[in-house]
Each structure stands twice: as structure tokens, then as C-alpha cells.
Please model this.
Amino acid sequence: MIKKISNIHVIIIYVLILVIILSPTLHGVGQYWDWSFPYFKDEIKNYFWYKSFSWSSVGYGSPLGYNSDYFFRLMVSAVQIFQPEVLRFIWNLTLLFIPAYVSYLLLKKNHKQHLAILLGLIIVINPAIFYKVLAGHFNYLFSFAIFSFLIYYLIRIYKGRFKDVLIVGILFALSGAQIQFFIFSGITTFLYFIIVDSNTYIDKIKKILFICFTVFLLNFYWFSNFLISQNIFEVAQKAKEVSFGNSISLASLDILLLTFSGATQIEKYFHPVTLALTGILFIVAFASWFYNKKQPKAILYTKALFLTFMTFAIYSSYLYQIPVISTFAPMFREVGHLAPLIIFFLLISMQSIHGIYRIFYNALFLVLVLILNGFVFFSALPTFNFSETRQILSAYTNDQNTSEHTLIYPYFKPYSFLNVDSIFTDKGFLKNNAGVDSFSTFSNSRYVSSGVSTDEITNSIQNALHITKKTNFLKIFSIKHIYDMGTVYESQLDKYIPSYTYNNDKTLIKKQENYLKELKGEAIMTAENIYEIKNSNPHIYSSDNLISINASNSVLLLAKLVNSGMFSSENLFTFAQDLSNKVIPQNNVILPLFENSTDRNFKILNNKEFIFYNSYLNTTIKPGTTEFLIKPNLEFDFINDNLLKKIFINTDTQNIEYKYINKELVVRSKYYPNILLNNEMVDSGIDNSTNILTLPIIKGYSYLSIQNELIKYLKPSPEWTYLSRTNMSTDIYKVYPTNKVADHSFESSLWQEKVGDCNNYDDNPSISYQSSNVASDGSKSLELSTIRHTACVNQKNISLDSESTYVLSFDYKSDDADYFGYNLNIGQSTTTVFHEKAAVKKGAWNSFNTIVKNNSVATEAILHLYAYEIDGVTKNSVLYDNVRLFKIIKEETVEFTPKQSFESVKFESVTDTNLKMSDANYPLINQVPNSSLESGLWKDTVSDCNNYDKEGILKVDLSKSSSDGKSSLELSVTKHIACTGPDKIKVTGGSSYIFSFDYFSNSAEEAGFYINFNDLNKLTFTERIAIDKKSYNQWKTYTKLIDVPADATEMSMLVYAYETDGKKSNVVNYDNFNLIEIPDIKSRYYLLKESAVKLIKPKEIAFEVINPTKKLIYVKGASTSFYVAMSESFHPKWQLQHNNNKVNGFFKSWIPWIKPDTISDENHFKLNDMLNGWYVDIDKHCVKSLLCTLNKDGTYDMELVAEFTPQRWFYISLLISGTTLVSCIGFLIFDVTIQRRRRRIQKTLNLKSL
Amino acid sequence: MKKSLQFIIGNYIITPANSIPDRFLLKVISTPLKHIFGILFILFVIILLSITTNFTSVGIFFSAFIFSFFYWNIDGRFSIGLALLSLIGIVVLKILIIYTDLVPSEKWPETVAVWAYFFLAIGILKQIWEHLKISKDVRTLSLVDGHSLYIAHPKKNFSESTPLISSAPKPKTTTRTASKYHF
Model:
């Protein structure tokens, strides 16, 4: 018989084991996932302060959301005697010890002591808790510890006394440091009163209400954030966004096996044997439920909790279907949060078992499970040395409490420390060393946030700097420094997000050598790796010029406007949509011509013209022409507005052109305004061409260019000839003069004595060939005809050089064939085959060019040309001529990135001004073959795009109901998804296309399409379009503006008919497909409208930061109204007040019930797409209301306060919560004292009675 | 108190020995009305659900199972036992999928996992229901008679417990019994 050991010994054992397991983290742990803790001792206080006002000043600041960990952070920050890594170690140890010990206390009555000790440890040393420790979920571990103690208190100690109810309320409230635990503790407490508590219902309700009231009061400090400044739905939505997206569909299997691998990816850290043995232990726990007849109340209670949390984990996705609840569902749905609870309840509800289960219910097995799990804790936590890190980071520490911002390079988290070894999974994900930037988070200085959400990367300050390569615009965001931390950090963002979110430009993410040194602008290096931006705007400053931009909000546009010198950095910028319901006089208004031309507001007209709608313009695009006709909207005749002064033209989009000059091939970049004012091309008068390449030409050789797969022969011309556009890489090749194809123009023969049959499937061909007098070169061509089989001719023994590149070109023409094609076999024994069967562009002669690479040593080739059978009945012919096969050698690559700026041209509007945009390089041609299905179906058979059981019922046909021409495509489906589409369509990489089609149905609920490009990332667009029953029998048009990836050359397209229930037949008709390349028009043309109002900014403005929510502003010498800018994130609750006795005084400085003299809300606007700006009206505030001090020179001085007003409510609510906490603790201390005294008196009485 | 009926399924399975018509008929005729009503009601529920809802056969089975469980007062551990079998089944299926081609679809373990969850849920709910029911009965009796109890085993019927209510208060016994229901 093993002698029982005391609880003190158990505590010592637990502490020792946990110290051993966590010992590798003693020198520091973190820099992975959500770990975030100060590196410097003097910044430990910031762990509390950085989120302890209603406004957090991290980054550009943000209002507090569900920041329920106030008291927890206060506790952590209270102890500043240790270095941060030691403090964190102590906390981690404590937070694992509490649930383990509490579990032991619960388990020891149902198990032998040594088994209870082991099970208690397994409750905190298992994969689910490992995931929380690994991820650095500090708040969670704290809440879990408090929560476990709450369970212990309810089961073991609670007796229904007042102090019990109070303690339950306090524990409930404290457990909410991780907000989900409010729900968890609420459920736990409620179920306790249902299952365990045996009092009357009235009594139960009273206690529940009292607990809820206590919890409410203790947490009132952050509830008030919701009541005053935060929309709870917005916060919940944010939680929804940051939760695991895929765990909504997490399989029940993962939950029941209790490995939770689907969501937490713990399989990357645990050996399968460890997971299997741990899983067996859990099955044994289930077995104990079956084994034991006895069902004590407490066991039933914990089982009920297990079932509840298990149900949340498995069926939380259903919560998304319930209105309102769906908003909050993310707060308690995350499986990673539920897993430790499920394991906790499963193991504490475990009962002692015997028989066959003893194989897995004994100390040996439990020790094995513990060692295997403990080893993962010991070896796999993301450890690194804080002390070394402090030394490295000390070069960047800035003791100044500056309000200006610092930008860190590399730009985006997650970061890896370069001095820490990174461990990767097979798939390239990091298993350590990829986390947030704790250095800037807890710093005394302010930084631009490196945690930009993926959808904001392309609209971030960092991206704008990366594109423009000029630092001037950073001034308007009050950025004073740039820290090059490339010697400390490496960004790993590219490993976690798809590349299209950063425009496939990895140089934005990864460090580039000399990147910061090569930036243009007023940034100078003041210390190693530290750059200072001269004349950066201070945190608060004034201005006399506000420029409103009537375009989509874009930091990049601001950067271009400031960097190009059009406007100085002292100007303020705002976007028109941020001025709705505002009364702000604007000095200048910038109107984009096409900025709003997105898929949402353009449509196709019946006469096949596309019309873009915009608030003041309608722009019509007519396919087949090269002109965009721009007309004012009826209500807004801006063109004839005499305040319009200039047209700004973004010069980013330029033409790459070539010309043979003397004995050189010259390639240049030139920007063309492409704007016609009253039918005349506007000209800025500046020669803005840049020579990119000069190539000496060799006599007898010609040249061609290849951009993506597009081949162009560079023919001599007296004019500059269009080659490509900027931002497109183009290769220039030298073409050898010798054509390898003999009789290339079929002038003397047809290559073969008789036509060949290249698809003799039934010995019944009907093919022919002849010489035709219709030729593209010379006087004759080859005419290949077929009714049945594939007609072909070939030329053998074409001699090639080994390991060389060739260009194969020929002309073709057909009026009746669907396809033409060729085949080139290189070599004899081992052949390399180049083959293409492509759709015919009917009518005129067309040229076909392709590149052929002979990577072998073979020197002979055979070339075939084909005419393909259509249906075995219809005859079709293809003419071929001018077949060429030239050797080519690459000479140069043309790449040019323009200098990201604007040109301006004067705009003198007269009555009936006529404005057009025209670009001859865009013929606006529809690229969809057989776009209106007039030549039959794209494919004879229907495809099944969801063939889940091989029993699809689907059909494709032509219908006479059409929106264009005489026929349309009809897709029918009963089961599966019917789909069809044309052959692959050639597209120009990096271009924009208008995509549209008409659809119609009187039975289906949805139409849909799928578009896929052949770029590296296989970019895909797909959409299901709901068909309203009210619109049955009406043709509808779908339109979308599509940006083709730069490296794409082909596009695949499918349209769908979707199954409803496997029984109902759905028919969808499609017609009139359009895919038209249009010039880059977005962010390219702007009109500047000047205001007659001229303001003067005050002579002097100074400020003083009281705290993150309050700043004093001193204005001197204001002669006219002016603007005030403050570099805090815009929030409507920021208020600019006059600093007078209405906001000062012992009470008035913090109570919310005051009526200050404020700059009204309608004068408060969003500045630079993100900051705060105010318009201060001197007339109103100084002349009429006499709130300013009048100077002798007639100017005014004033004192203002910029205040985040919810802070006043925060003070009140914190007072309530603090008072409640102090009262509760006071009562408990009082109660303990009284009890002790009573016991002492009782003891004395007992002694006396004896 | 009325003694509850024990439903023993073996009594209703027809064996060769039952083939003699009169014996079979005897068995049918001697079936208590509660069982006949239960079986008919289950059949009715199955038919109703299959006609009026989109429930799968598994859904209908679990609906009938829940009803049977509560109607015949079957021990909650029976359902937990089935859950345990399902859990072991998941592991077996996973192993078969990894090492053999015997399992045609990888969805099978997931399907069995759903069953396991349902069995667990039904078992636990049944046990809680039993507990709450007894607590309520005990409370009612306690209030009516003003006497203490010392028997409240959830698995036993009150009628089988002796004595349910003591003729005289037995405070010591009560205390001991109550503590039995805590850890």
C-alpha cells in the first residue's frame, strides 16, 4: 500500500515537473504566432499602459474593443523586479500549475492518489494546452486557470452562502480576461444551478442574478466601451474575421479524436504515437463512464459541461445561421479555445476503473503519456534568448516620448529574428520564429503598424512607399523616422498569405539590399540603419489648404500627388466620400475621370456600347473604335465649370516604342496624354520620352520582340512604333536571315505530291489540297480542304541547329473552318513535338507566330500543316502561306518603371467642351470566339463540373431565345453542375478587360461563371449570380472589370447551370459574351477644380500630450479660419474643444456630463484616408462666440483640447468596477476575520466548558 | 408506487421454438400494452419522419433511438457503450484506410464520429434526466412527508428501494447518503 502524501508535497512535485518541462523557456520564449511581451524591463509597465485607456496608442491608435483583461494586465505589470523573460516564465509556470493542482484536488477522491497526481498533470500537459502555450495565448491560460478554480470552488467549496456567491461572481468576472470565458463561465455557473444546486428555483434565480450583477459591475469599465464608443457588432465582426476561417467546417472526427489537428495543426509538433496514446487515454476516460454505475452529481455536472463544450465545437457552425447570434458566434466557436476545456471536463469526470481497462489505467501508462507530451513542451516551444535580443534591439531604442511615427523595414509581420534558427515544416511553414513585433508594440515611441490586414496591404503606407520609392509623402502621416531592421528581422508574411494580396511582388515583403538608401526624397541617415525624414509634419499641426479628392480612398494616390510635387506636404487631403454630412470648405477638389469605373457601375447598352457611370460623368466605350467618349452627367456639368483649371495625368502608363535610327534599334518609353479636348490631343508641352535601349543592328538580320508569349516582328518604319507598355518585361531577339522552310510561299510546289491524311480513323477520307491564287506573300498559297479526316501536308528534312531557339510563323486564312493547326517534330528517334490546334479568326489573313526551342542535339525536323474535320459532312478549307522558321537569339530585355508622378495640362473650359480619351493601341475588340453562339455550340457535349456520383443529368443546346443575334447557349441540369465554355482565350498579361454576358432563366435560382488564368498563381474569378423569381423570363446582363495577372497569357472560361435538389430541372440561357481589353484608365486622369476661398494658417501652433486620449493645443495668430490635423486614427468620438472652465476643474476634467465649447462634428473629417482633421471657423468661434483671445493685430489666440470623449465614461466605469472589486475583496477579508474570531471564541468557550 | 415494466427484447424475438402458432400468438397477446404502444409509436414516428422531413436514415434512427431510450427507461450507459464502440470503430477505420483498401470512402470515420457524438449526447442527457427526475421526486416526497430519505440510487426504481421513507427521521443516515453523491 502506497502511503498518501500531503498536498504540500504534491505542490512541490507539480512545480518541479513544470519547471523541468518549461526550463528551456527560462531565457525567453515567444516570437511566434500570438506571443507578445516586452523585451525590456522598463517596458513591462507598458504591458498594462498600452491598452489601458479607451484609446490605444499603438500604431495610429484605435478605440478599445472587448478589452476585458484590464486587471490581469495590471497584475502582470505590477511586478517589475524581474527581467521580462523571468517574469513570463513565472507566469507560465503559475498558469499551468493552477489547473493541474485544482484538477488533482478534484480527482483525488475518485482515484488513487498517484493516479490523480498524474491525471492532474495530463490536464495541462496535453496537445490542446500545448497549442495554447505554443501560440502564446497568455490571456487564455490565465482565464483557464481561473476557470478551473471556479469549477473547483463550485464542486468542492460552494455552499450557497453569500460569500460563496460573491466569490463565484469574482472568479466569473476575472475569467473573462479571455473574452470567450464569459460565455464558458456563464454556461458553467448556470448548469451548476440546474444540475447540482438543490435549492428552490427562486433561490437559484436570485443567486444567478446576483452573480451576473457582480460580473457586470466588475467588467463595467470595458462594457462602457461598447455603450459609448464601440459598436459591438463591429467588434464581433472583427473577431469573426480573425478567427479560424476553416474551423467552421471542422470535422466531428477531429473533435472526437481530441487531437483537434484540423484547426490547431498540432500534428506538426506531436509524433503520431504520442497522439495515439493520448487518444487512448481519452477513450479510457469515456470507458470509465460506461464502466461505472455510480453517477454522482458532480460527475454528471462535469459530463454535462463536457457535452456542452463538445457541442459548441462540433455544431457552432449552426450558430452562424441564427440572426444576431451569428455576430457573436466567433467569440465562442474557436475550437482551439474549446479543446482544453473538453479535455479538462473529460478527465475530471473520469472515474476509477478496473478489469480490461487497467491496461491503460495505470501509473505506467499515464507516466508514458505524460513523458511523451511533456517532451514536446520541453523541446518544441519557440524559445530564444531575450538578453541577446535586447542587445540587438538597443540600437533602435528611443527614449523620447515622441508623438511622431516610425516606419519599420521590412514592412510587415510576422517577423523572424535573424539570429534565431528557424524550423520549417515540409510545406514550408515556420514552426517557430515568426511572430509579431513586440519591440514596437511595447515601445515608448510610436510606430506605424506592421500588422496590416491582407486586404489593406495594397492600400497601406508601406505599399505606397514601395511603389513610389519616394519618401516625401510620409510627412503627411507624421512619419519622422524609418528604421532599417533588416539586420534584425526577416518578414515571413509571404508564407502565410496568397501572393495576389501583395500584387505578386515579393520585394514588398522581403528585404532588398540598399532598398532604403535608394529611396528618393528628404530622408537622411542619422545613425546606422536609422533614417530621418526632414520637415515631417508634427503630431498636431495646422494648414490653410484642404484638397478633396473625389475618388476611391487610396494612400497610393496621396503619395503620388505629394511626391510629384503637385501639392506640398503641408496641405491636407481628404476623400469626398469622407465628407458626406460634413460642412468643410475645400480649397481644391480633384475629380478623377474614371476612378469609379468599377464593375459595379458600368453596364452594356443594347447597341453594344459600354457605359461607365460616375457621379459627374458618363463614359461610353464603343467596341470596334478606339475612343472613350466622356460626357457630363445631367446634374453636374463640370466640364463647363470655369473653376476647373488643370488636368492631372498620371504618367505611370507609358508606351514602349521602337524605331530604327541610322544603324541602331532604339527603344524608348513615352507617355501620351491620350486626352482629346475639343478633338485635339492635349499636350503638356514637355518632351517626356526616355530612351531605354539602343541596339546596333547587323545588316541582313531582322529583330522581333517577345512579351509573355506575344511575338512581334520589329518592322522598320519612319515613325515610332508601339511595342508594349511600361511594367511589362519585353525581350528583343535578333532574327537570322535564313528561312529553314523551303518553298515557304508555295510558289513552286505544295510540298507533297498528294495531300496527306493525318487522322485516318476509318479508311474513308474526303480530303484535298490545291494551289490558290489568294496569297499573303507572293502570288500563290496552299489550300487544304477536308470533309472527313484531317487533311495535312508536311515538309521533311528541315535542318536545324542543335540547342537553338526558332520562331515559327505562317499566315492562314479561312471563312469556314473552325480550327487551323501545325505540328513540328524535331529529331528522328527521340522527337520533341510542338503542336497547336487553334481557333480560326475568320475573314482576312492572320499571322500565327510561336517560339520553338530545340533543346536537343537533333538537327532535323518535319513540319505539318492541317485542316481539321468539322462534322464529317461540311467541307472546310484553310489557306496557308509564307511559312517561316528562323533561328533567333536573345539580345536584350526591355524593362522600364516610370517615375510615379503626374503631369498637368491647363484646362480652359469653354461652352460645350468636348472631352475624349483615345488610345490607338486598344482597338476594343471582343476576344470571345463565337461570342453570341451564332456559329453553333462551343463544345458539342456538356461537361459535368461536379460529378460526385457519376449520375449527372445535364444537357447543352442552342436556344432560339436570345439577347443578341438569333441563338443563345442553353444549359440544363437536374443533377450535378452543367458547364461549358469556349477554347482558351489569349489575353494580354497586366491588362484590364471588360467581361460581360447576358443570362436568362425561368426555372433556375442561380447562374454562374468561372474564369481562370494560366499565371503562376492560377488566378480565378468565380461567382454565383442569384436569379430572382421576379426577373424570370427577362434577360439580365452581368458585367465585371477584370485585371489580368501580369504573367498570364491565356484565360479559360466556363458558365454553369447548378443543381437544386437533384429532382428539379434548371435551365439557364447565356448569350452575348464580351471580353474587351481596355486601356489602363483607373487612377490616370484627374481634373483640378480650384476654390475662390483662400485661407491663411495661424502664425504658430504648439501642442502638449497629456495622455493618449487628451492633447492640449495652443494656437496663436489666427487671422482666418484654418484646419487642424492630428495623426491619430480617425474616430468620430475625437473632439476638439475650447480649453476653458467648461472642461477644467477637479470634476469637469473627467466627468462625462459636461457641455464643452466644441468644434462641431460636421467640421470634423477624416484626413488622409485615416487621420483626424478639423475645420476651425474663426467667425463662429472667435467673432460670434468670443471663445478666443483677440490680439492687437486683429488675429486670435486660442487654446484647444483634442479629447477622445469615451475616456470620460471610461473613468466613471473604471471607478464603478474598481469600487466593486475593492468592496468585494474588503467584504471577503472582513468575513474571514469574523470567522476566525468566531472560531477563536468558540474554541475558548469549548475549553471553558471542559 | 407502480412498478415499471422491464422491456427485454429477447422476449419479442421469434425463434424456431416460437413457430408453433399458438405460442407465437400467446407471446403477442401477452405483450403489455405499454410495449405495443411504444413499438407502434416508433413505427409511426419513423414513417412520419421519412414522409414529412428530409431526415436521412441515420437521423430517423437516432430519433427513434432517443424515444426508445426515454420511453423504456434504458440505462444511459448503454448509449455511452455504443459511443465507445463507435470511437473504437473510428480508430479501426482510420487504420484500415491508411494501411488497406478495405474502406471505400474516407468519409466513413467522419460518419461514425457523428454517431459517436450522438450516442454520447443521448447517454449523458439520459443520465442527467434520471438524476433530475429523482432529485425532483425526492424533493417532492421530502416536502410532502417532511421525512428524510436515505435511498435515492438513480438506477433503482423507488418501488424497489426499501425503505424509501423511514417512519422516523434518521438524520445521520441522511447525511451519509447525501455525501455519496459528491466526489
